[in-house]
Specification:
The protein contains seven helices and 17 strands. It is α+β, with helices and mostly antiparallel strands and 311 residues long. Strands 1-5-6-9-14-15-16 form a seven-stranded antiparallel sheet, covered by helices on one side. Helix 5 packs antiparallel against helix 6.
Length: 311
């Protein structure tokens, strides 16, 4: 899924335990790539998308769990996070190898009618005992894209597996989503927040993190500039155009699933409204607004160390 996954174990355990723990953690992401990668037409998610406007598709338990989590995330964020965003994929393209183009407004408007999480149907399979379900997209052109949630879900699942093995101190990263458990050789884990207008390795703030997920979304990740305007991959699904309220959002949450969906939702709202949404769901945030104003949850003000980001 075009993402690097990193697992660091900080517990003093023998090599056999380490190897088993690594194998289990990475197996989670192997399964995600096989079943939940919308770029693969033969994946369960690919088959669901191909059947849009037609029949329901039987999905394995993991896919059912993630789809339900995505729909619940959409409900909790009042549609700011919406897994049917992928209906726009053919219009908004942010390739590393091809120049980006601003799509036709009428085409965006038409495709936007397929961004409709409330219409996704998920039902149990009659008499099934394996946890599988039936998923149906009722409108032709609808598509599910779970890349905005599934990395966090995978991190949470991998962390659960490591804890079940008795490991207490570890670090898991999948792209911009991270989870820090315990400590690193007795010292706190430290996470940095990238400067949205700085170099890729330049941070403007950092904080200590323990037993929390840390996720950042920014307008610098996938974007192009046309006529002096930056167009990026975080879409405001209320009008299906790139959101304009923020440059970056970092969320500190109990689960990586919550952190991932909240970064994107808060990015759309920006500023105080973004903080309010994040805090209403028991998380904390650092938001860099479109005018470079930094908004920080009160629960983080004493923990955050850093300077103002690049103008």
């Amino acid at each position: 899924m075009h993402t690097t996954v990193t697992v660091v174990l900080a517990d003093a355990v023998d090599a056999g335990v380490q190897r088993a723990a690594f194998d289990e953690a990475f197996a989670v992401f192997t399964d995600i790539d096989a079943n939940l990668n919308e770029w693969k037409p033969d994946s369960a998610l690919g088959r669901i998308n191909a059947a849009a406007g037609k029949e329901a598709v039987r999905a394995p338990p993991d896919v059912c769990e993630v789809v339900r989590a995505a729909l619940e995330g959409a409900r909790r964020t009042r549609g700011l996070f919406d897994p049917t965003w992928a209906s726009l994929r053919e219009l908004w393209k942010f390739s590393d190898t091809e120049p980006g183009q601003v799509p036709d407004r009428e085409a965006v408007k038409q495709a936007c009618s397929n961004v409709a999480w409330k219409k996704v149907e998920v039902k149990p399979v009659p008499h099934a005992t394996d946890g599988s379900c039936l998923v149906r997209l009722p409108q032709p052109g609808m598509k599910l894209g779970l890349g905005g949630l599934v990395k966090g879900w995978g991190i949470d699942r991998a962390a659960k597996g490591l804890r079940a093995r008795g490991l207490k101190n570890f670090f898991i990263q999948a792209g911009g989503d991270l989870y820090f458990a315990g400590t690193k050789q007795g010292q706190p884990w430290t996470a940095g927040i990238r400067d949205p207008r700085g170099a890729p390795d330049q941070i403007f703030a950092k904080l200590e993190v323990k037993d929390r997920s840390f996720s950042t979304s920014g307008d610098y990740e996938h974007f192009f500039v046309a006529d002096g305007v930056r167009y990026h991959h975080i879409i405001d699904l209320r009008d299906c155009w790139p959101a304009r309220a923020s440059r970056s959002v970092t969320v500190l949450a109990r689960t990586a699933t919550d952190a991932e969906l909240l970064t994107k939702s808060a990015f759309v709202l920006g500023g105080r409204e973004g903080l309010k949404l994040v805090e209403s769901m028991g998380a904390l945030a650092v938001i860099v607004g479109s005018d470079n104003t930094v908004y920080v949850s009160k629960g983080l003000e004493q923990q955050l160390v850093g300077v103002e980001p690049t103008p």
